[in-house]
């Protein structure tokens, strides 16, 4: 029973991390201010690409007759390689601030608060100024994000009803997962 509770917590933390990773792509707007649609598409793709990692790991495990620990080691190795590549590809903080200044026409203000409580307090004060707009934005983003995830999670059951074939219960979710990982969803 304890392992299942910890697993649910770990899944929630991992999902939150992947969402935050996607939102971090918005910082690329300062580097590509004339390509906003591309940056937004990349943001969606970074969240969806995790789906193909699971598929590729499953293919590796099937072909190599490997167990789950080998699959997880493969993912760990790929993530470590990606981390090393990011060290070379990601711009420095000073370059980020320079591009932000160039794009906005003025420098970003200096960060005043360093502790999480003071940063959160300042964020709440900003949100209170236009709270109705922020509430509508949170609701719209939440509903739009959850509707596609709800469809994805029910694709197997939907396929059985739609095609009246039990084999579709495996095929449609696979198609949805591969499509989401290739083009975003």
Describe this structure in words.
This protein has 185 residues and is an all-alpha fold. It has helices at 2-24, 36-48, 50-64, 68-89, 93-104, 116-129, 131-153, 155-163, 168-183. Helix content is 79%, strand content 0%.
Index terms:
79% helix, 9 helices, mainly alpha
Number of helices: 9
Mean pLDDT, to the nearest integer, reads 80
What overall form do the CA principal axes indicate? globular
Helical residue percent? over 70%
- Measured by DSSP, the beta-strand proportion falls in under 5%
Span of the ends, CA to CA: 33 Å
The count of strands amounts to 0
Alpha-beta classification: mainly alpha
Largest sheet: number of strands, sense, barrel closure: none
Low-confidence stretches: none
Radius of gyration from the CA trace? 21 Å
Q: What pattern of helices and strands is seen along the backbone?
A: HHHHHHHHH
Secondary structure elements and their pairing?
Layout: H1 2-24, H2 36-48, H3 50-64, H4 68-89, H5 93-104, H6 116-129, H7 131-153, H8 155-163, H9 168-183
Helix pairs in contact: 1-2, 3-4, 3-9, 8-9
Summary, kept brief:
By secondary structure, the chain is mainly α. It has nine helices and no strands. The mean pLDDT is 80.
């Amino acid at each position: 029973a304890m392992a299942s509770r910890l697993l649910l917590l770990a899944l929630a933390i991992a999902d939150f991390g992947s969402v935050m990773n996607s939102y971090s792509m918005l910082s690329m707007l300062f580097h590509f201010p004339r390509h906003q649609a591309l940056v937004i598409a990349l943001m969606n793709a970074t969240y969806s690409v995790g789906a193909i990692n699971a598929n590729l790991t499953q293919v590796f495990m099937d072909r190599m007759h490997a167990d789950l620990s080998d699959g997880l080691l493969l993912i760990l190795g790929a993530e470590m390689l990606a981390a090393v590549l990011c060290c070379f590809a990601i711009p420095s903080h000073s370059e980020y601030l320079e591009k932000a200044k160039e794009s906005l026409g003025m420098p970003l203000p200096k960060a005043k608060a360093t502790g999480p409580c003071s940063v959160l307090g300042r964020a709440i004060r900003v949100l209170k100024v236009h709270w109705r707009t922020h509430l509508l934005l949170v609701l719209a983003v939440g509903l739009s994000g959850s509707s596609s995830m709800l469809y994805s999670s029910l694709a197997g059951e939907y396929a059985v009803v739609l095609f009246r074939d039990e084999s579709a219960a495996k095929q449609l979710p696979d198609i949805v997962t591969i499509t989401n990982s290739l083009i975003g969803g």
